[in-house]
Specification:
By secondary structure, the protein is mainly alpha-helical. The chain has 2 helices and no strands.
Length: 179
């Protein structure tokens, strides 16, 4: 009987050890599965971080290329603005010169016309006076001299008026050129 109790105890301990062994295997199996999942998740995270890193490098390259393109575009735009400014300045100078030439030509035309008119009036007056001297008595001659002086004064006034009108036109043209 003593042997039997001992055999029963050994059998019970053996059964318990078998249960513990199977449970230990289950625990090891579960832990192996969890470890595999953790390794898998870690691998996926590493892959995702690598992909994010690639995308960041790609975006950085695109930003760098865009900055380079913007710098080139800014330089081209600046150069074009300088060329336009130079062309505009040259055109402005040319326009002012043409306007000044036109103003001078107009001034000379007006002055020449005024001189011709004055000369013609003098000629007509002189011719009229020369013929009238022969026909007009002395008192009319005196009156004629007075008229001549009046006409000369009017001619001088006309000349002054034409000169002031010419000066006004020049000032008007200059103000238009300045604007």
């Amino acid at each position: 009987m003593g042997n039997r109790v001992a055999d029963d105890g050994v059998a019970k301990v053996g059964v318990m050890l078998e249960h513990l062994s199977s449970r230990f295997e289950l625990v090891v199996e579960v832990l192996s599965g969890i470890s595999g999942r953790i390794d898998l998740l870690r691998g996926e995270m590493v892959d995702q971080f690598a992909e994010v890193g690639k995308q960041i490098r790609f975006l950085s390259q695109q930003i760098g290329e865009n900055r380079g393109g913007l710098s080139e575009l800014r330089a081209e735009l600046t150069a074009e603005m300088v060329r336009l400014g130079e062309a505009l300045g040259a055109t402005r100078v040319e326009f002012r010169q043409q306007l000044a030439d036109a103003q001078d030509a107009l001034h000379h035309d007006i002055a020449d016309g005024a001189q011709r008119a004055i000369y013609q009036v003098r000629e007509e007056i002189a011719a009229g006076i020369g013929g009238a001297r022969k026909e007009i008595p002395a008192e009319v001659t005196a009156s004629s001299r007075q008229t001549q002086e009046i006409v000369r004064a009017e001619i001088a006034e006309l000349r002054g008026g034409m000169q002031s009108e010419l000066a006004r036109m020049q000032d008007g043209l200059r103000s238009e050129i300045a604007h």
